[in-house]
Amino acid sequence: MFRLGRRGRRLVILMICSAILAVFGLHVAGAQDAATLEGVAGDVGTLKISIDTTWVLLTGFLVFFMQCGFAMLETGMITQKGAVNALLENFIDAGLTAVVWWLVGFGIAFGESNGGLFGTTLFAPGMDVMNTTFGSLNITTLTFFFFQFAFAATASTITTGAMAERTDFIGDLIYSALVAIFIYPVIVHWVWGGGWLGGQGFHDFAGSTVVHTVGGVIALVGALMLGPRAGRVWGKLPRPHNLALATLGTMILWFGWYGFNPGSTLGAVGYGSLIGLVTLNTTLAAGAASMSSLAFQYVRSGKWDLGATLNGSLAGLVGVTAGCAFVSPWAAILIGLTGGVLVIIAAEIVERAKIDDAVGAFAVHGTCGMMGTMAIGLFAEPSLTVVGPMAGKAGLFLGGGFELLGVQILGSLSTVVYVAIASVLMFGLLKAIHRLRVNRKADAVGIDVYEHGVSLWPDVLPFPEEGVEVGVPKKAPAVGD
């Protein structure tokens, strides 16, 4: 029998121990590797949430900054007697909307759907959803709330421009609240909140219908029911009192649109290519529209018209908002060129109908919002329509037939009908309680003096001295007094 020496036995024991340690080491290493991979996966998930949250918040801040643009544009485009009123209305609309959107509007828009018509949960969101992500997004519910609040504030602000210089201030507060509670969030739910229009495959990436058509239709109904400004001469628009302010406001709006459209990806991780396309389409549409409105108005009047060009750029931005993620750059240019001409024609039609839309709100937001919505049905790229029942559908001009276009028409018309009926009821109520139009005394001294007791330019447009009854012009002194 073969016997091992002392050294041999030691060698065998050493080999056995080494094998045991090797096996145990592999097991431990495998467990450590698995734990490491799990930790890395967790870190990656946290990083995605952080990046997407940062993106959505930053773009939401840009959208909110558009309130400043609307205020400046509207104030510059109206007469100086209503400038303070316009500034306060734009400012307080944001504050009021923040509260009512949190209390009611957000839940109606994005809560659990009741038959595809409106939401029934997520009212007054707070600590209960602080740590929960919204749906399949990599952002929390509260982050999503803020982004959508910035959109909601825009809808009522559109209306103030059309109704400028003659709306009762309390009436403005009432209708702004009602828009954020009962009108705007219902359309949001239909399209973005799991409602029936989204279920039909209706496409509206960033709100040509949801925001702009809604705001434009409310503006048109409000201006019609409110009546014209005092001394209004049809066919001759009152001159803007400060085109520099209007230009600055428009440029802020264009800048803010880079939050409005690219931010609607609702995330940055994995969306780099789409964000680039959306940004390019937004830029091209605005540029093309500003050029077409400038040229079109010059051919008609022989003048290079700044006001028309400003509204033209906004028309292009509104028009491309729905389809910026669904069309090619060449189509974005066509949308912009069309919007730049359409906004001028639409403004003239509104004027001939003797509706005093002080800033052309319906022409910009309503008309071009509907045009941009239809444009998806004409120019949509099948490689970009990747979600919902219409996934992979091309626009009519790209060989896709009428199917997608039909859904777009249905969505736009449904929105117009609902918003128009709701607006008539809302403004009719305000008219019945004498809170739609400011007291006629304001026509004599201007709404700034009557409602607020101030003037934007006191050295140019004085206001009554203390003790003089507002609305009653001070008796002029006799010559020599």
Q: Which CATH architecture of the largest domain is right? A: Orthogonal Bundle
User: How many distinct folded domains?
Assistant: 2
- Mean pLDDT, as a whole number? 89
What gap, in angstroms, lies between the N and C termini? 143 Å
**Separate helix tally:** 14
Q: Kindly state the percentage of residues in helix.
A: 55-70%
Outline the biggest β-sheet.
2 strands, antiparallel
User: Can you tell me the CATH class of the largest domain?
Assistant: Mainly Alpha
Task: Determine the structural class based on helices, strands and strand pairing.
Answer: mainly alpha
Assign the CATH topology of the largest domain. Answer: Ammonium transporter fold
What string, H for helix and E for strand, traces the elements in order? Answer: HHEEHHHHHHHHHHHH
Radius of gyration of CA atoms, rounded to a whole number? 29 Å
Overall geometric form: globular
DSSP strand tally: 2
Low-confidence stretches: 466-481
Strand order of the largest sheet: 1-2
CATH level-four homologous superfamily name of the largest domain: Ammonium transporter AmtB like domains
Beta percentage is under 5%
